[in-house]
Amino acid sequence: MGELSISRMISAAAAADPDRPAVTCDDRTITRGELDRRTNRLARAYEALGVGEGDLVTIALPNSVEFYEAAVATWKLAATPQPVSYRLPDRERQAIVELAAAALVVGADPAAHPGRTVIPAGFEPDPSLPDTELPDRVAPSWKAPTSGGSTGRPKLILAGEPGVFDPENPVFLMVQRDGCHVVPGPLYHNAPFSASMMGLIHGNHIVVLPRFDAEAALIAIDRHRPDFVLVVPTMMLRMWRLPDEVKARYDLSSLRVVWHMAAPCPPWLKEVWIGWIGGERLMELYAGTEAQAVTVIRGDEWLAHRGSVGRCLAGEMKIVDPETGCDLPPCEMGEVYMRWKPGSRATYHYVGADARSLGDGWESLGDMGYLDADGYLYLGDRRSDMILSGGANIYPAEVESVLMEHPDVVSCAVIGLPDDDLGSIVHAVVHASGPLDADDLRAFVGERLVRYKVPRSFEFVEWQVRDDAGKVRRTALRDERLSP
Fold first, then answer.
1. Are 230 and 192 in contact (CB under 8 A)?
2. Where are the beta strands (DSSP E) in 11-69?
3. Residue of 347, 283, 284 whose CA lies nearest to 314
4. Where does 114-171 show beta strands of DSSP type E?
5. How far apart are CA 265 and CA 191, in angstroms?
6. Strands 228-231 and 180-183, how do they pair?
7. CATH of 267-383, one of 3.40.50.1820, 2.30.38.10, 3.40.50.150, 3.30.1300.10
8. What would the pLDDT profile of 119-146 be if each residue is shown by its tens digit?
C-alpha cells in the first residue's frame, strides 16, 4: 500500500470499521466514523479562520476528546499541531505563540493573544459546514512540541518527518494496528502526544485519562484491556505505592508492552515493576524530543545491565570529554553526543534555538553518561545540573532516586546551592505525604549513599515538585532560592 497521509489513514480506519471506538475520555467516546466526520467539519472551520498548509496550530487544551480532534483537523489541512500546557500563564503561552507565528490558537482566551486568531475550549464549528472528505494534503512536519530547555526560553522542535506513515508497518514504539492504548500522561508532553497519536493514526482505541490518578490508570487498564501503555517513573511510583489489596483488584494481563521514559527511573522501582508485570513487557527508551539517536532496553535485559538505558538502536552516540571535546573510551563519564545516521533525513529542526554541536552532525542535549564495552549507555545527569561539592561530582538524579525510596516521599528535586567552603552544597526540595524529620531523612540517605552525596539541607514543601510527566526544572528551583 505504501505511505498515506494522516488524513487518509484516519479516513481509511473509519471506512473499515466506522463504529469501532476511536477516543474515550471519562464517559465520552467517539467512534472512528464520528472522528473522521467531525474533524472534516472542524478542519473546514479552521481553514475559514486562516489555517493553511505548513502553518502551526497551537493547541492549549487539557487531555480530552477535543484535543485529538484539534490535532486531526490540523493535519487534514497539512498544518502542524503545536501542543502546549493548558495551564500555562498567559505570558509564557504568548512567547510560544509568537515564536510559532501560530495561525490559530485553540483553547485560550482571545484577549490573551491580541492580533492572533484564537478559539476557546469547547469550540464547535458551524453545523452547516460539510463533513465530507477533504482534499488529500500532507503536513511538512507532523508535530512541533515545545521545550523550555536549560535557558528557560521556549523553543519549538519541529519533527523532521512529514505527516505520512505506512499503515501496514507502525514501527514506532512497537505500536500495533487496531489495538488499544491507555494514556495516563499529559498530551502537551512529547512522549504521550507522539505515542497516542501514532496509536490513533494506526487505528487504535485511545483511552485518555483527563489527569493522572494512580488507581484510575489501573481501572482503565482493567476495563478497556489495552495492549499498550506509556508511563513515567512518577506514575510508576504512585501506582506501586497503592495498597496491595488495591493493586490486586485490577487485571493487567492484557498489556503487551509498558514503556517508561522522560525521567530517570530509580533502580529499585524498576525492579519491583519487573516483578509486577514481567521483564519481557517492560521497555525503557532514552532519547530527546529531537530523536537524533535512541536507546532501548527490555526489563529482563536490564537485569543483566542494571542501571543502563540500553544500546543505541537508531542514530549514533558517543561520549565526549566536556572540557577537551575529545572522544572518551568505554566506561569513562562524559557528555553524551548523538547524531542521526549520515545521509539520512534530519529528525528535527529548532525554532528559537541552536543545537549544542561539535560539528559533523554531533549534538548534545546536555546529558552526562558513559558507554560500557558492550555499548550499553549509563546516564549520569544533566551537565548543567551536576553539583560540584568539595571537588566531587554529584549527580542529583542519584540522590533523588534514594530519597524516593522513603515511603513518605512523594516527589523531590536535588539542587546545588552556593557554599563558601565547599563551593556548593546538596540541597533537597521534598514533598512528603506527612511530617518528616530532616535528621531522620538525612540518616535514611546516609545508609545508602556516601557521605558527601547526602543533602546538607532539606526544604519541605506542600506542592508536587515534579509534574505529571515526571519533569522538574532544577535550574528554576535553584534560581528561585538564590533570588533576593
1. yes
2. 21-25, 28-31, 56-59
3. 347
4. 118-119, 146-147, 155-159, 164-165
5. 16
6. parallel
7. 2.30.38.10
8. 999 999 999 999 999 999 999 999 999 9
